[in-house]
Amino acid sequence: MNELFEKKEVLTRDEVMESLKIGRSTFYKLIQEGKLKGYKDGNKFKVLSTSVNDYIADKMKTGIW
After folding, report:
1. On the CB side of 5, how many CA atoms lie within 13 Å of its CA?
2. Of all helices (H) and strands (E), which one includes residue 56?
3. Rounded to an integer, what distance in angstroms lies between the CA atom of residue 10 and that of residue 22?
4. Torsional sign, CA 51, 57, 60, 62
5. What are the distances in angstroms from CA 45 to CA 6, 28, 36, 53, 60?
6. 58: phi then psi, degrees, rounded to nearest 5
7. What is the DSSP letter of 47?
8. Whole-model pTM?
């Protein structure tokens, strides 16, 4: 399977929102629910690219996308 993000290890909130085509409230909901793994760096959220890839793969498995 091709990885969505092969070269970047850490993504910003805006990069995740753009790639998943989601809004800010959905982004924070996914973080809060643990569906995306991230951390806060100062006042900005960072998300591991592997977490985004895992989230997409999980959605594809369950057929909910």
Report:
1. 20
2. helix 49-62
3. 18
4. negative
5. 20, 9, 11, 17, 25
6. -65, -45
7. E
8. 0.79
Give, in degrees to the nearest 5, the angle at Cα 16 between 29 and 28.
Answer: 15
What is the residue whose two structure tokens read 């592997």?
Answer: 50
52: left (phi over 0), alpha (psi -120 to 50) or beta: alpha
- Judged against a pLDDT cut of 80, whether residue 6 lies above it is answered with no
pLDDT in tens, 10-59: 999 999 999 999 999 999 999 999 999 999 999 999 999 999 999 999 98
> How would residue 2 be classed by pLDDT, with cut points 50, 70 and 90?
very low
Query: How many Å separate Cα 59 from the centre of its chain?
Result: 12
Q: Which residue has the tokens 């909910």?
A: 64
Token couple for 2: 């091709």
